[in-house]
Design brief:
The chain is of the alpha+beta class. The chain is built from 26 helices and 20 strands. The protein has 3 domains: 8-144 and 214-283 and 584-712, no CATH class; 152-213; 292-562, no CATH class. Helix 6 packs across helix 7 and helix 15 runs antiparallel to helix 19. The model is unreliable at 1-46, 408-412, 432-445 and 715-723 (pLDDT under 50).
């Protein structure tokens, strides 16, 4: 087997495992007593996002910023003190080299022959529609299925480029300086190398050099009925009973499996309650550096708008799919939108929580006090909170226009808006021809034709979402009744939307090869009046909102640096997709007046199936029903850990302190969905598939002995299933 390049201290710690288990048990008892104290104050009406405490007892805590660390420079002292372990640069190198970055996800190398573990959701989204949710089990490598849309980036090295960025910044902006250094390093790199330069709210700057592998094949993928067991109702919840795991194999350009010099071996013991665990992977952008005033605007304006648009889109698409034949792509789009709606509702609920609001306000108060007490920091960062508050007030004056013209929820995925409405707000061809530079500056931020992919929504769905946008436009125009009459011309928003979708030149997708400009609209076109009323108003809104947003981004970066200056806080995720590290423990949490256990077993899976029956999202495939009598159903299937969900989503490995594999993370619980704003370790948890559950499924259900040998090294069953 592969010999991991770990330090002698690391091996010494491994020899002390038996004695450390005694310490671990003591930690479990202490943690249990702490949880029990918190639980005592809970009742079934307790809020999701904080204890039932009055506002004057709420304090800002260092944990608000999360547990997100640089893989290039982990906080070894913290790990050693908190978890009674030893870690050094060799530990960090082994961690980095065992990771793979997939499009929007993470994977972990788990064998010396290129086998990698990730989630089923990360893989299935790249498969063609004809797979139709079926399982893929490759007993032989010749049976592995190629996925052209999937690639894997492996981190080769990290380099401090802070001085290079500072030198490049002498006569340009920070963003341009970073881009300049990145482009220079990319030009100097070898073939199949990708260089990315990133930072967290300023220096230090790190260059990440990846090697890209284009040949990635599926070795194992469970049925979608099992990987998404319970459907939308079970998504982002816990206890969760779903085998959301998949195995890939990475191949070189020569067609041979990647010979991995670093990979994560499976733990022979498995995770236990209270165990220290680590997870690493591509980080998601968060808004934790933002002020309470900024997040209040998200709460009062941006999130409600996104929720309303998603509700309209999903309701219309669901009704359409119930009455007409739909493609697999449309079903996936609906599932994605429904999941986004559930997440949006949870995030809005968190920001509406009095406990969370007070904690955010106290955090800003502590920052103001710290700046007043340090003249040098006051000189650097004084006034940043007030400047941000002024921008938020200006944004609130644009609330009505945001509802009418805002960027379709602020995110391109999932689509929740009307492509026809986007084309209505785009510049016309004659405007583009009049002066490219002027139009570009004026319309920057307007909906782009690039979003048109040649895929049209079913007409009833497009009509519903367009009618919703026309109704918000009507509300925005009041009390200008003349503009409203000119807009609707005696018709309701639904009637006007129907006419536009059925006969307007703007109803057809724009050919991206023709540029972003849309066709000219004839005077008799049903959309002509809407273009006349809305287009110029929309461009004025985009210009003003864009100006405010650019200033806000610069101030938010200053605010992040201020928070880091007054106290040692974790890395703040900037959404650069850099690999980050997080730590925590396998730990349950207060839930519905009780406490949820840290593990869910196959018993729970079959009980849910029995309770809900064989219809719908709780049905099990035939092979799973046949295996019920022979499977060890006491085996843990999933677990929860208190790691930071800003990194522990979508295939990041869950590792013990010896960097042995114990699971693969699949996403947050519903409380963790709000982790983009604040980290609350009392209740936010990361859900993971337990490696023991994956082994049990591969053995008892799929009889994939070859994959079991490849992943676990062959030999007798040694995995401890005790919890």
């Amino acid at each position: 087997m592969f010999a991991r390049p770990l330090s002698s201290n690391f091996w010494f710690m491994a020899l002390r495992r038996s004695s450390l288990r005694v310490v671990g048990l003591t930690c479990v008892l202490v943690l249990g007593s702490l949880v029990g104290t918190a639980l005592h104050a809970q009742d079934r009406g307790a809020p999701r996002f904080g204890p039932a405490a009055s506002a004057d007892t709420v304090v800002a805590e260092p944990s608000d910023a999360g547990r997100l660390w640089s893989t290039a420079d982990p906080p070894f002292d913290r790990f050693e003190e908190r978890y009674e372990m030893e870690a050094d640069s060799a530990w960090a190198t082994h961690l980095r080299r065992g990771l793979l970055r997939l499009p929007g996800c993470t994977a972990a190398l788990v064998s010396a022959e290129g086998l990698a573990l990730t989630t089923a959701r990360c893989v299935r989204q790249h498969l063609e529609a004809e797979n139709d949710g079926a399982a893929l089990v490759a007993e032989q490598r010749a049976d592995e299925r190629s996925v052209p849309a999937l690639h894997a980036d492996r981190l080769l090295r990290t380099t401090d480029v802070t001085e290079a960025v500072r030198a490049a910044r002498q006569d340009t902006t920070r963003t341009q300086a970073v881009r300049s250094v990145e482009q220079r390093l990319q030009a100097e790199a070898e073939a199949n190398r990708r260089v990315e330069v990133g930072s967290a709210a300023g220096a230090p700057y790190t260059a990440y050099t990846y090697r890209r592998f284009e040949d990635v094949r599926v070795a194992f993928l469970p049925e979608q009925a099992v990987s998404a067991f319970g459907g939308l109702n079970a998504a982002m919840t816990y206890p969760r009973q779903a085998l959301d795991a998949a195995l890939l194999r990475v191949y070189t350009a020569e067609g041979t499996p990647l010979a991995a010099d670093h990979f994560f071996e499976p733990s022979t013991q498995g995770a236990r309650p209270g165990d220290a665990v680590f997870s690493a992977g591509a980080s998601e952008q968060t808004h934790r550096a933002e002020s309470a005033e900024q997040l209040a605007v998200r709460r009062d304006l941006m999130l409600p708008v996104r929720r309303a648009r998603l509700e309209t889109w999903t309701r219309a698409m669901r009704a359409s799919l119930d009455t007409a034949t739909a493609s697999a792509r449309q079903h996936r789009a609906l599932h994605e939108a429904e999941r986004a709606l559930k997440q949006t509702r949870a995030r809005l609920e968190a920001l509406q929580s009095e406990y969370v609001q007070t904690r955010l306000q106290r955090r800003d108060s502590l920052l103001r006090r710290a700046l007043r007490e340090d003249s040098s920091l006051q000189k650097r960062f004084g006034g940043v909170l007030d400047s941000l508050a002024a921008i938020q007030e200006a944004k609130r004056t644009l609330a009505s226009a945001y509802r009418a013209f805002g960027r379709f929820g602020g995110e391109s995925r999932p689509p929740s808006g009307s492509s026809t409405y986007r084309r209505i707000l785009q510049p016309r061809r004659q405007e583009a021809a009049a002066g490219a530079s002027g139009v570009e500056e004026t319309t920057r931020g307007t909906p782009s034709a690039a979003v048109d992919r040649g895929r049209r929504l079913p007409a009833p769905v497009e009509i519903a979402v367009l009618a919703f946008r026309l109704d918000t436009l009507r509300s925005h125009l009041y009390p200008d009744t003349a503009a409203v009459r000119r807009l609707l011309q005696g018709r309701s928003p639904t009637q006007l939307a129907t006419a536009i979708v059925e006969s307007s030149v703007l109803a057809a997708p724009v050919d991206a090869s023709a540029g972003a400009a849309t066709p000219d609209v004839p005077p008799n076109d049903p959309a002509a009046a809407v273009v006349d009323v809305a287009a110029s108003r929309a461009r004025s809104f985009y210009e003003e909102w864009g100006r405010l947003s650019r200033a806000e981004r610069q101030l938010t970066r200053r605010l992040a640096r201020a928070r880091q200056a007054i106290r040692e806080v974790p890395v703040l995720s900037s959404g650069t997709n850099a690999l980050r590290l997080t730590d925590g423990r396998v730990l349950g949490y207060p839930y519905n007046g009780t406490i949820t256990p840290p593990f869910a077993t196959f018993f729970d899976l079959y009980e849910q199936n029995r309770a809900f029956g064989e219809d719908g999202a709780w049905a099990l495939p035939e092979r799973w029903r046949r295996s019920a009598s022979t499977m060890d159903r006491s085996t843990p299937l999933t677990l929860v850990a208190s790691t930071d969900g800003a990194v522990s989503n979508g295939g990041a490995p869950l590792l013990n302190k010896y960097l042995e594999l114990v699971g693969v993370t699949v996403g947050p619980n519903i409380q963790g969905a709000a982790g983009t704003y604040i980290f609350l370790p009392e209740r936010m948890r990361t859900v993971a598939v337990d490696l023991r559950g994956l082994r049990q499924a591969l053995t008892a259900v799929y009889e994939a002995e070859g994959l079991v040998d490849d992943l676990f090294g062959g030999g007798a069953e040694t995995t401890d299933t005790r919890r």
